[in-house]
């Protein structure tokens, strides 16, 4: 039992001192706007609220799963040609 506690403590310490880096989100807003999509459309498709998508795009909210789903959804829409 003591070995298990030590292993958990080592893992927790490692995660606290070396947190994983969140995925990039600084390009999501530009990609969405290039495709002519609104925050509401993105939020509706991803099953969330527009303010959360806005916070994600501005880097104020970190959610790896949502970011990956958002990026994948954006990649299925071709950019608008002008």
Q: What overall geometry do the principal axes of the alpha carbons give?
A: elongated
- Mean pLDDT metric: 91
Largest sheet: none
Query: What is the count of DSSP helices, taking H or I runs of 4+ residues?
Result: 5
Could you please say which CATH topology applies here?
434 Repressor (Amino-terminal Domain)
Please give the alpha-carbon distance between the first and last residues.
65 Å
In total, the number of strands is 0
Task: Indicate the topology.
Layout: H1 2-17, H2 28-34, H3 39-46, H4 50-57, H5 64-75
Organism: Actinomyces ruminis
Domain HTH cro/C1-type: 28-59
Region (Disordered): 14-36
Give me a quick take on this structure:
With 82 residues, this protein is an all-alpha fold. It has helices at residues 2-17, 28-34, 39-46, 50-57, 64-75. It has one domain (23-82): lambda repressor-like DNA-binding domains (434 Repressor (Amino-terminal Domain)), CATH 1.10.260.
């Amino acid at each position: 039992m003591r070995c298990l506690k030590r292993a958990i403590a080592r893992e927790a310490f490692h995660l606290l001192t070396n947190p994983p880096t969140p995925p990039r989100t600084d390009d999501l807003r530009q990609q969405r706007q290039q495709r002519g999509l609104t925050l509401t459309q993105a939020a509706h498709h991803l099953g969330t609220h527009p303010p959360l998508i806005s916070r994600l795009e501005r880097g104020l909210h970190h959610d790896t799963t949502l970011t990956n789903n958002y990026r994948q959804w954006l990649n299925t829409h071709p950019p608008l040609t002008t």
